[in-house]
Amino acid sequence: MTDISASHDVIIIGAGHNGLVCANYLARAGKRVLVLEAAAQTGGLAASRQLDGGFQCAVPHSLPQLQKKLVDDLKLTDFGFRLPDTTLPTVALNPDGKHITITADQLCGASDADTLAYGEFTRLLNRFAKAIEPFWYKSPPRIGSGNWADTLSLGQFGLNLRLLGKQDMAEFMRMIALPAQDLTDEFFDSDLLKAALSWDFVIGNKLAPRSPNNAVLNQLLKLSGDLAGNNRYHTGAVTLFPGGANSLIRAMEQSAQAAGAEILCNASVKRVLMQDQTAVGVELDDGRTYKAHHIVSNADPKTSFFKLLGARHLPIQFAHRIRRNRNRGMVGKLHLGLKNLPHFNQLNNANGRLLIAPSREYIESAFDQAKYGEVSDQLAMEIVIPTLQDPSLAPTGHHLLSAHVQYLPYDIKGGWEEHKPRVLESLLNTLQQYAPTIRESIVSAELLTPKDLEQEYRVDGGHWHHGEFCIDQWWVNRPTYGASQYTTPVTGFYLCGAGSHPGGGIMGAAGHNCAQQILNTGKGAATP
Amino acid sequence: MNVKTTHTTPGLLKSPFYPRLAPFNEAEQWGDWNGYANALFYKDAYTEYFTTRNSCGVYDVSPMCKYRIRGDDAEAMLNRMVTRDVSKQGINKVAYNVWCDDRGKVIDDGTIFRFAQNDFILMCAEPALDWLMLACEGFTAISVHEETEEIAGLALQGPTSCALLKALQLAGVENLTPFEIGQFAFPADNPVTQLTISRTGFTGDLGYELWIAPEHALLLWDQLFARGEPYGLHPYGEESLDMARIEAGFILPEVEFHGALHTVNLDHDHSPFELSLDWMVNLKKPHFNGREALIKEKQQGSPWRLLKLDIPGEKVAENAILYAEKICKTEIGYVTSALNSPVTKANIALAMVKGSHIDKDIFAEIYYQKELRWNRKVRKCTVQQKPFWWPDRGRATPPADY
Amino acid sequence: MATAFGHKPILTMTPKYDAIVIGAGHNGLTNAAYLAKAGLNVLVLEKNDYIGGAAVSRELHPGWIYSNCSYVCTLLRQSIHRDLNLSKYGLMIVPYGSTTFLGANGSYLAEYTNEAMTYRDIKRHSPRDADAYVRYHRDLMRYCKLIRYFLLRTPPDPTSFKPRDIKEMIYMGRKFLDMGEETIYEFIRFLTMSAADFLDEYFESDLLKAGLASASIIGTALGVYSPGTAYVLLHHVMGDVDGSVGTWGLARGGMGAISNAIAGALQDFGGKIKTNAEVAQLLVRNNRTYGVTLTNGDEIHADIVVSNLDPKRTFTKIVDAKDIPAKLRKKAENFKIRGSSGKLNFALTGRPTFPALPQNSELTKGSLQFVESLEAMERGYDDWKNKRWSRKPFVELTQSSIWDPTLAAPGHYFVSTFVQYCPADVEGGWDQNKKDAFAKSVIDTIAEHSPDFEDLIAHVEVRTPAELESEVGLTEGNIFQGELTIDQLLFNRPFPGYAQYRGPIQGMYLCGSATHPGGGVSSACGANSAREILLDLKRSKVNGAAVVPEEFVDD
Asked: How distant is the Cα of A320 from the closest Cα of chain C, in angstroms?
């Protein structure tokens, strides 16, 4: 349907990184694109934030998933984005000082047997990652539709697995269901190493070392980036944002604008405008309206469907499937502004990703409390000090400590208001065990709980991925069938956020895939 | 969650009218309707059937599930749920409705009573709370409350029904048009409660449904029966109701169609088009559940159609399989309900027929028993468009007295 | 209890059979019965002095017959029951009625035998749940319908290009597609999610959710919040009694009646059983088996040896390390066979009362499940993770003798309880004190619901996973012979590449619950394995008819 009053071809609600990527690809294909952002700046969950004392930080601090292809397609380097030139090791901190340092291809501080096993472990995971790599940047097929393209896509998935070879394919189909606990047990001896390697299987989700089915998938998503070079394995080769998250977001924003996309900040969308069962525009909180042929939401599925669109426009079972989508975040973020570089016991170089997760039981027990809406006094943490790579993020001589914290339940018994000071205090206590003098260096501190993320970034549930990243909410079921090809039951309304395949993390794949879907639809391809 | 500590009582529940129904039920033939004792027949189904066609009869509809839906979003929620346009339904009007799942398959049918802009009751023969609550997700200004036990109901059906109500001094009751709701102080001479009357029913004939608070149910019964004798008033049971509804061409859940929410096998449920309820599907109104699928089905044709069949002879075509040829080679459908119609003297059936065969020859393979011995007949069927029994008196306002 | 097979003449020369089956559990006996039916000369070797493995009836206290391991049955394939004519050998499966979930503070929720009563009882707790139960049941039945097609079939190898594997993959694919697009997506979700998440999508009543979730953790070293437990739930409802899917039954005479009936069929086909005959080693020459040696040094020869033992036991104890690839041994070591369940079996001198339940109702005779909430169950799992038995265990109490007059004298009762969780490796190791403390925690839980129970106890048998392992030979006392997680199901069971019942050594096969379709008294593993053996021997048909039934009765 053509609406002659439409000022744009596409309106994108939300200038998170996926929204910016989607806008960019569409603009490059000649579409007139308008991006509407409720906040004062672009970036969504990756937007930069200021910490008292002149520190610059952001919720994400590492960049495992970004692909070179996207950087090239959008010419991000022309707009000030620097490709990371170094990778950081992961350091499994041991309270007794006997840390294990994990790099891309070796272990320092572990036994020979573990080092040997690490090689095989990395090889297998990289092979699996390679096999499913093409599917991150591809719209999921429909199963049982009888459609030729869908059948082909499924066939290709099967073929890719088969090309792993008989043994690796069989291992893939078994290991995909294994919890981190069993997987690491099959390979390694050292408890500290097992815990450290488990971290990337569980972080970001309601997953603990003993949780089956979703751990390997969670890891494979992190292995989707290739900025770390040929050996992409992430636990041992972490890439940070050169120049902070801000530099990537600015590059994405400017590149999109250069391609012709119009970006409006402080433009909070109140609702999607409907006409004859078709999404035709948006109305802002301030009453302004814009019209377009395609309305794309970069918001999470619940916000997109219930707040922006409204249940009355949706099929009942579909709406229920969106409603039941599990999207309660489990990860918190700790930022500490420090007046000097913290010293960790027996650690010469803090320029790495430091893990406080001395054993898998430690992680599991933190998880066990979060399950019931409680918070452990012994939380697990992933720490980086971005200022070691980019001193400009803090005043001269000062440093920023950025840490992901697991597990903080979205719903805490008694409410976050009451518990937040206690949790922050216990985090500092934990840090102190490893870096005894850290308290004296603190200039400013903030702890962001999932509730905070929800409120500050308008992400229902405060989840990194806009929804649990797990097999039952993956691929054809992300966010749910009927909307897993970026189209929705409402004509003209699309999704491009992390709630869609392939999920969250700074990757841009959902934005890319959604743009492709819109462009293909324009060419007359069938919409599901 | 409000856990009652009492136990679930074994046996059938008793409707508020039970103390009066029981003495009539000399045969002690009780069926189970939503857990309530529901008379299959009182004395004899055939005789009771004639109360709905010749005089008037009462049927206890208290076990009907009733959901009160209130709030500013009530109309929007219901309009998204059902296939007809609720926004066009007037206040104090009743509308027969079906609702579908996302695939356009019928979940159930029922009636919506509208009492005010934001005040509805959904009535249906089977529980619908699960689906209603799913349908409410995403709406905020809405409340759903089950009132099954809070409203007692009697269907008063038959050509003398209006006359009997007039005899109760219910002023203006004769002016109720079909599907209209009226409120009456009751009893008229010494009011203690309010009686809600809707001109609705399941017999295809003149009839009303009377709704009252359960504590006054026996009062209503006694008032009716105190004056009912000259009008031929008698309770009728499920079996006679079934006869009447087949003549009227009304469908029954779990007889004509298998509800989509408990259908295990793919496509063993049916769309409203397949049930020949085309007139109820308003494709012009905004989005409603199943709309996309129904538009598609309308374009592509329905795999099945529910037909009304007129069958020669007198052998009832119960459970008959339908064929395209007299030699019974190609199966094209099955009979869902069948009856030798007493008023029309026709041998009738409702049958599900494959869409590709509705305009072609249809043969019914009928099995019947003669002193235990099974016999078989193959009859060529004629498709009827209109209900077998649909008298004008059922639609006339004011209705005649008999 | 004496068995009919205890006194066989002692063989003096090295005897030779066509096939040896190690372990007279119900799957081993089924396997042997089918091989014998096809005309093979079969010997079943059993380490204990009684047969049946975990499907036994034993007089552990004078006058009381105990089904002391498995205690109820639903998966036993009806087609095998009919095919082996088990009724002739005394087998009768009797449905045992209602299931009641007893919660805290005297609350309860019952699944009656009558659907309308169940509806009303759920409605007491939540009107919405009573109605949603219909949708829940529909969805489960859709998934059951799919899985049931695969129970009596050999899993295909998805990595193989053999015509048979491709054909089977297509068969599976077609059944999958037959569900329709929507159900396919829902099934994919269902297969991988947690029981708690699954139930949350339908219900609001915690007691109902907890009660239904009990099926998702029985025998499983996972919690109700663990992804993958929804499938375990299905595994417990996909069986049937006389076609009534989801119904459970008791074997008249105790669960040993199943083993004894299969043994009867086996012997009628000419097969033999030797008890007190523990196998020490599989004899292998040139990667081919030629028999076994027993722990007493005896040697028995056969071209075919079928192991009904779990793969851990088979590949790390009976098979010599030099006879198999190191990788396979590693797989066996990694195989997840975790002990998580305990049992207390009681001889009672009177019938216990349960004050929460209506007096004299059918509920007092049915299965009683003591649950509180999903959270309480999950906390029970947390205890297991920390190597403790659950402080507040989930207990299922089955009053077998109420339904089976053969188990105890009139006025006496045999009651079995199943307890989740109880670890195989409790902190510091099991000893008598810990065993007593474990038993006390279970009896205390029962006492909360039945004040007179404890006074009626004439004898109690306490079984931690350690007892189950030492008596029955199930490693860690895992009742399924291996966890029912996706990495150990279908073509992954017991491990990839070995799911078609063939071992790494020629002539060697597996037939235990560690193979597809997994745990439960189903006989399916044994039958499927027999089908493969007979296929290799080119004896799968007799007079044109398949010896081992495939597929299902009318579903």
From this structure: 9
How many angstroms separate the CA of residue A317 from the nearest CA in chain B? 6
Amino acid type, C470:
S
Q: B291: which chain A residues are within 8 Å (Cβ-Cβ)? A: 277
Query: CB-based contacts of A471: which residues, under 8 Å, 6+ apart?
Result: A176, A213, A214, A217, C188, C192, C227
Structure tokens, A188: 């390694």
| Mutation choice for B interface testing from A316, A317, A325, A460 by most B CBs within 10 A | A316
ipTM: 0.95
The string of pLDDT tens digits covering residues B119-143 is 999 999 999 999 999 999 999 999 9
Distances (CA, A) of A285 to A38, A45, A299, C102, C548: 9, 21, 16, 52, 70
Q: Which residues from A are below 8 Å from C334, CB to CB?
A: 182, 185-186
Higher-pLDDT residue of C1, C156: C156
Task: Tell me which chain B residues have a C-beta less than 8 angstroms from the C-beta of A318.
Answer: 102
Q: Which residues of C touch B (CB under 8 A)?
A: 106-107, 110, 116-117, 119-121, 124-128, 130-132, 134-135, 137-138, 141-142, 145, 178-180, 182-183, 204-206, 357-358, 361
Question: Contact at 8 Å (CB) between A168 and A127?
Answer: yes
Query: Interior CA angle at B281 toward B276 and B285, to 5°?
Result: 170
**pTM for the whole structure:** 0.95
Confidence category of residue A2, pLDDT binned at 50, 70, 90: very low
Closest by CA position to C549, among listed C265, C264, C155, C153: C153
- Secondary structure (3-state) at C491: helix
| Dihedral angle computed from the Cα positions of residues A267, A270, A273 and A279, in that order, rounded to the nearest 10 degrees | 80
Distance CA C175, CA C158 (A): 16
Q: Is any Cβ of chain A less than 8 angstroms from the Cβ of B134?
A: yes
Which of C227, C382, C487 is the closest to A211 by Cβ?
C227
CB contact under 8 A, B138 and A319: yes
Q: Which two tokens stand for residue A229?
A: 């070079």
Answer whether residue B382 shows pLDDT above 50.
yes
Q: What is the pLDDT of residue A525?
A: 38
**Is the CB of residue C91 less than 8 Å from the CB of residue C489?**
no
Nearest CA among C295, C326, C331, C348 for reference residue C458:
C348
CA distance C117 to C130: 10
For residue A426, give the 3-state DSSP assignment: helix
Which position has the token pair 């508020």? B16
Per-residue pLDDT tens digits for C2-52: 444 445 555 567 899 999 999 999 999 999 999 999 999 999 999 999 999
Q: How far is CA C254 from the centre of its chain?
A: 15
For residue C65, give Cα distances in angstroms to A55, C73, C249. 75, 17, 17
Q: Please, which residues have CB within 8 angstroms of residue A88's CB and are 6 or more apart in sequence?
A: A237, A238, A239, A240, A351, A352, A353, A384
What is the Cα–Cα distance from C171 to A221, expressed in whole angstroms? 32
What's the half-sphere exposure (Cβ side, CA atoms, 13 Å) at B337?
23
Say if B10 is an interface residue toward chain C (CB within 8 Å).
Answer: yes
Angle CA(B254)–CA(B259)–CA(B261) in degrees, nearest 5? 145
- A316 and B287 within 8 Å at the Cβ level: the answer is no
What is residue C29's predicted lDDT score, i.e. its pLDDT?
98
Q: Residue C2: left (phi > 0), alpha (psi -120 to 50), or beta?
A: beta
d(CA A312, CA A266): 28
Looking at A224-238, A406-420, B67-81, which range is the least confident one?
A224-238
User: How much is the average pLDDT of C393-417?
Assistant: 96
User: Rounded distance, CA C413 to CA A24, Å?
Assistant: 76
Q: What are residue B82's DSSP bridge partners?
A: B99
